[in-house]
Design goal:
The complex is a heterodimer. Chain A has helices at residues 14-22, 56-74, 104-121; strands at residues 5-8, 30-37, 41-42, 45-54, 76-84, 86-89, 93-101, 124-130, 133-136. Chain A starts with a strand and ends in a 5-residue tail after the last strand. Chain A contains 3 helices and 9 strands, in the order βαβββαβββαββ. By secondary structure, chain B is an alpha+beta fold. Chain B has 3 helices and 5 strands; from the N terminus they run βαβααβββ. Chain B has a 5-stranded mixed beta sheet. In chain B, β3 (49-52) and β4 form a beta hairpin. The radius of gyration of chain B is 12 Å and the shape is globular. The model of chain B has no long low-confidence stretch (mean pLDDT 97). The chains are: A alpha+beta, B alpha+beta. The interface between A and B is medium-sized, with 28 and 17 residues.
């Protein structure tokens, strides 16, 4: 459960993921995190739950590739990507990206790049459950 | 056998997540697409991404499939 890239139904701890990133290196000078959460409102409707569908093997392989690319491209010391699966209630965590680098600029740029690339490349689909019905989300890139 | 997978909105529109098709020599992923598009036109309206054996493929990739190949027809992703 301590892998740097995970797809999991259960919630995660931002503090534990940051600690896991820091444990292997004291050369990290900056850590940037992106925490994606489930909004309770979307396109005029109250959302109480989001359900994720995923091609697990392809998505995990893509996220592993993405992390490796980010480490090389932005000279990161380490990075972590965790994405929830299954059902997520409004207000809960969906995705966490953690980027650690010697300097802040690389960490900022890498964090933004990783979440943008995840949205474009990982075969994951979300369905919003509302009082008015259920609908698959059109991507917001 | 060719193993075809649908996920998310494509699975919902087609009413299925997995289909087995008979393999024949020379079969390309586009042949599979054409066969299934005729069967599930509403699902294929939103298909914009295709992967063969875990690798995304484009229209220009015409290599014949091998027996046991997995093809995934997908709509635009919406994770994160």
């Amino acid at each position: 459960m301590n892998d740097a890239v995970r797809l999991q139904p259960e919630d995660f701890s931002l503090d534990k993921e940051v600690a896991a990133l820091r444990v292997n290196s004291k050369r990290i000078g900056g850590i940037i995190t992106f925490l994606g959460c489930a909004r309770d409102f979307s396109e005029g409707r109250e959302v109480h739950e989001i359900v994720f569908d995923v091609h697990y093997d392809m998505a995990l392989a893509e996220l592993l590739r993405l992390r490796n690319e980010a480490i090389a491209r932005f000279d990161l010391i380490d990075a972590r990507i965790i994405h929830r699966l299954g059902s997520v209630r409004a207000g809960e965590n969906i995705v966490l990206i953690v980027a650690g680098a010697e300097h802040r600029v690389g960490a900022f740029d890498a964090c933004r790049w990783m979440i943008d690339e995840l949205k474009a490349r990982a075969p994951i689909w979300k369905k919003e459950i509302t009082l008015q019905g259920k609908s698959w989300v059109t991507p917001h890139l | 056998m060719i193993n075809v997978l649908f996920f998310g909105p494509v699975a919902e529109r087609s009413g299925t997540r997995q289909i087995d098709l008979d393999f024949r020599e020379g079969l390309r992923w586009q042949d599979v697409r054409d066969t299934l598009r005729a069967r599930y036109p509403e699902a294929f309206e939103i298909v914009s991404i295709v992967a063969v054996n875990g690798q995304r493929v484009g229209e220009q990739e015409t290599a014949p499939l091998t027996d046991g190949a997995e093809i995934v027809f997908m709509s635009a992703f919406s994770g994160g």
